[in-house]
Amino acid sequence: MKLLYSNTSPYARKVRVVAVEKRIDVTMVPVVLADPDCPVKDHNPLGKIPVLILADGDSLYDSRVIVEYLDNRTPLAHLIPQDHSAKIWVRRWEALADGVCDAAIAAVLEGRRPEDAQDTAAIAKQLGKVERGLKALNDDLGNNKWCVNDTFSLADIALGCVLGYLDLRYQHLDWKQQYPNLARHYVAMLKRPSFKDTAPVSN
Ligand SMILES: N[C@@H](CCC(=O)N[C@@H](CS)C(=O)NCC(=O)O)C(=O)O
Fold first, then answer.
1. 43 Cβ contact list (under 8 Å, min separation 6)
2. pTM for the whole structure
3. Which residues line the pocket of ligand 1, CB cutoff 6 A?
4. What is the mean pLDDT of the chain?
């Protein structure tokens, strides 16, 4: 299996962390989406990463589908609980964490356009989603060590990946001061080699 990914994609990081936690051998293929010959579109019509290319050439996307596939490849330490109720909560955490990523990335991309072409209302709208999302994640975590049933799961990985993205692109936000529960969770995540070794590097 091969994973098309980029080092700064929080969605791809989620998959990379899951692969390490599950000890599944995946060949990592870094791609640059802006390259005209980038292979992603050949495997995902949406042209988005991550994409997992299976041994038979079929491909899986998006990150939520890939993590479910990997989690079921081995019974070792399930990251998506088998229990339905716990699973739904884990997936809701993931949906919110990914949704904050969507908004944070959209605001960054808009902010990279020439200043006179930027839509400041659109940026403010996306930043509102980031702020509300972070507050909800912080409140929901409370004093718990892990997101759901105090057991490490995909919810924690998804949360760690959005916080890692903020650390990369939103250092000015001071989210660690504002959201101390999230800051504490992030410190716990960084103790895991799967998370530490997949940290994004700015480009
Ligand atoms: N919901 C998707 C989001 C994937 C996504 O938006 N990836 C970004 C990179 S961080 C991308 O490929 N963007 C290129 C594009 O939108 O054309 C997932 O979870 O995999």
1. 4, 51, 53, 59, 61
2. 0.97
3. 9, 11, 33, 47-50, 62-64, 98, 105
4. 97
